[in-house]
Design goal:
heterotrimer, A alpha/beta (449), B alpha/beta (245), C alpha/beta (490), B: 245 residues, alpha/beta, Rossmann fold, six-stranded mixed β-sheet, four-stranded antiparallel β-sheet, 9 helices, 38% helix, C: 490 residues, 12 helices, globular
Chain lengths: 449, 245, 490
Amino acid sequence: MNLLRFWKPRDIRSLYKVFLQDYISKISTEKKHLREKYWLNSEALLSHFNKENIPDNKIEEWKNFKTGFLKKTNWKIPELKNKKVQVDKKIKVTENSLFFVHGRYNSKISKAGNTKGLNVFSTYEYFKLNPSYKEKVYSNPEKYMEDRLSGIGDKKTTALIALNSLLNHGTVIEIEKEAKISNPINIINLSIDETSQLLISPYIIIICKQNSEAIFTEKTYTKNCWINGLSEIYLEKNAKLTYSKFQASIDNSIQTSSLNCSLKNKSNLDLKIFNRENCKEDIRVFLNDEKASAKISGIITSKERKESDVYCKVVHNGKQTFSDQSWRLLSSDSSKTSVNGKIRVNRLAKFSAASFSSKSLILSDKASSFSKPELEILEDDVKCKHGASFGEIDKNLLFYMQSRGIKKQDAIFTLVNAFLSEIGFKKFDIEEIVLKSIKEFFNIGNANE
Amino acid sequence: MLKITNLSVSVDKKKIINNLSLEVPTGKKVAIMGPNGSGKSTLSNVIAGKGGYEINEGEILYNNNDILKLEPEERAASGIYLAFQYPVEIPGIANSSFLRTAINSIRKYNGKKELDTRAFLEECKEICEKLNIDKSFLSRDLNFGFSGGEKKKNEIFHMLMIKPTLCILDEIDSGLDIDALKVISEGITHYSNKDNSMLIITHYQRLLDYVKPDQVHIFNEGKIIESGNYELVKILEAKGYKEFV
Amino acid sequence: MTSKETIKLVEKANDYKYGFTTNIEQEFAPKGLNEDIIRFISRKKKEPKWLLDWRLKSFEDWKRKADNHPTWANLKYENIDFQDIHYFAAPKSENDKPKSLDEVDPELLRAYNKLGIPLKEQEFLAGISNSHKVAVDAVFDSVSVATTFKSELSKKGIIFCSFSEAVSDHPEIVRKYLGTVVPSGDNYFSNLNSAVFSDGSFVYIPPNVTCPMELSTYFRINAANTGQFERTLIIADKNSYVSYLEGCTAPMRDENQLHAAVVELVALEGAEIKYSTVQNWYPGDKNGKGGIYNFVTKRGICLGANSKISWTQVETGSSVTWKYPSVILKGDNSKGEFYSVALSNNYQQADTGTKMMHIGKNTSSRVVSKGISAGKGQQTYRGLINILPSAYNSKNFTQCDSLLIGNNCGAHTVPYINVKNRQSDVAHEATTSKISDDQLYYCRQRGISEEDATALIVNGFCREVLKNLPMEFAVEAKNLLELSLEGAVG
């Protein structure tokens, strides 16, 4: 089914209108009713998308990520029916593996049934089971609109969120109250149709109930796609979540995704991001209640003539909230890496502490790196600091290693690895993804080993 | 000199000092010893006038005047000096110019003329030598980047320059090596005379071995549980606080 | 301190020392902005045709932009009615310009004396020792009224005069450099300035000359409903050195007044320019009424190798400040520096910072910015560090610290760092903090009052910047900070 058969690359507005309306008419009446009552009204989403359209570099937050390709390409919407999926042997499947094929949860190949405290629902099911939650979070479409679609003082890429919400109902992953799940839960995003240019819209809602603890890793393996993702993370009182998001394989794909986190009392979020070329990540973390804390760390790499861009805003609303951002950027060839980290401490968020640091390593003459660490402080009794540094590989160190007989490429790899390891990714099995991609960078060894 | 009667102090409704009575006579060195969290630092802060404490009852008389209503700087001007357990860092202000501002503020308050700069610097150098402090101490930023020992020495340096009549030394010996402890003790002993008083708050007996106190009180849960003379220190050292608490 | 005392102090703090007006006969151009006004200004100045054409072209550009007032800064102010401003106001005596200082209107001399700026050279010689001689160019509303020490300077070949004089006496230098650093179309306000600028200072230091004294300009807005649009051009020829000071004040008026200046600095091979500003325009009253809108474009270019430009600014005045003194580091091994203290109290707003454009090899820049917000003040540091691909082995260090006093104010830090050369070393650090209760308690225990302790801590916070000011200015700046801070403690 090629919903984009009317696509004329230069006339995006009318085009989206045609295919989205076509798409909306196919949503079953019951689900449509749900969306319209509790969520955003599809017409509102559509008109919002038409109004704002795909952002371009006129918007400050999108200065460092080109979107022309998105506008020019004839994207297709994947079919709704589940095809039989064969999981590539390279992808390790563990006991808690949740597969999302073309952005939709696939229960047939996922393995989640045996873990106590972990539940996966469609949003429809979830709200049926938890009417109170539904009322609390989604009963007020205006508020939802406000929370999701307004950037609170920033240009949020709301058009893309609207697009995502139109094309996917979302999947809820719930960690039950008091549940402590020590094995990592793997979210695996796959594309299986490698030939056509698909627009994939994963929409994942993670709800961690009171006193729960969980570790998530999200990996994406795609080819020739545009992944326009939306993730929402809700941490209730005392909940603890470690969430790692990695681009494992991004052959010819483009990713634009949005990650919203809302933290309640004493909850704790440890977010780790591995953002590669052609990826734009938009992260918003709201520390809404007392003593909520978030640690956000990430590696941003890019190669060839591509761009890799992260926008990360942390908003302190509660007293004694804590946030720490640390980023490592690595650009080679003619690529560009960029990070825009914004800290906002609102009035009454007393005794809060926030910090940001970024370090860029530029590996070639034509590569570049951009950093914009912003502070907005409206409360006087807080401690905030940010720092950014740029440079190349220390020549003395390199020479030292070479003179000890280490091959230049290996020496560079070792130094880069040391530079990146300051972030503290090591604990995770995902390390191999990061290292593998860095080996690809330097053509060291066999990338597939 | 200092007379505290039936003093009760609380922070956030929690009682820290409980019906305490204590006298520091002129010309005497009084030591207060007690385990961590017994309310020793609260006592020194209440005498110096730090905000955030609720005085439930009792009075503090200093030279027969009630000082509880006075601002910290007024108490300082009347001769009360507190050597801080954790001296504060202020970047950008030279140690010497801070000290000069302080001394001149106190002089002004007492209707005296400002100190002559040259005389001030001469005296600074003299006392630095006495305390075995390098002269660079004067030009460095106030406590900024000082080691723990240097900060404590600086507190004694300030004391000798300001020349207060009541010196409250809050854990002046914590974090000091033996040499620094000796220097500081000598500074204190040297300064102590029949016209001034010392209130020495400490956890350990080592400082008291050098600065022989005239009176020793053991403090716990906001009140004095045992009083005596220097001998009490030795007993305490042998038996530990547990014996008394 | 009780809240009552604080309120009292805040009320007291509103004493703007320079708020007097001077009654002297003045001549105004009619209000409004159009081609005729520009022709009028140009005619008044007896300008050559090329300059008039340049003005008119700038005006054409500005008209196209007129409705697109820049909005990217973190500032809120009422729309400026550009037709409700006098674009030219001059003391009457300008008609037949005084030949010597003795002919200057005595009222004017008194005004400058009130500001603490002696215009008579003998007063300098009587009061201050030779080593601290300062040559002054005094700009009153739209025109330069007096320049001191001209003859002594000219012995060394130094040209220090008003901009108008430079246009008539040294047109070849003016024409060569005017608009080369800040092109008229650079931004909204530079465009406006280029069309209507009235006067300003001009400095030329010949090769291998170290200027023997500080050069300085004092700007004074006196007339009501008048905008001040001065233009300063400083050229330091090969291996020369000059230190230049700029000070400014204005009377207290209820309406907002516009100041839109342009400053251009050119440093040739091996030359060094040090430019210091103590900006003390009227900041408006404690309710935010009145005050100067200060929209200034300042930029220097290190044109030759091994040259250096250093900006130091202390910004305590104006109700709105929009100012980004920048350096284009074109020559190899050139250096740029920016040291800034900005204080906003009551309803003041400041959006200020710098741009460092690294083009040449081995260029280095250093940025130290200290922002203090008190009352309801809003303070933004906005800076750009741009390392171009040609800038091999370039270095930048940026430090911007903010201090908040009270909890109705805000501090914002917006640095843009763009690195396109790998052999470069860029570091940015920023902190935000308040004066801690512990620091205050410590000072008070040593006998220093809360007010004094605050001033002491603020001065310590700014020391790294203040120490870069020439001696006379450093003292003035320190006092200004204390004055502007009064009543901020609570």
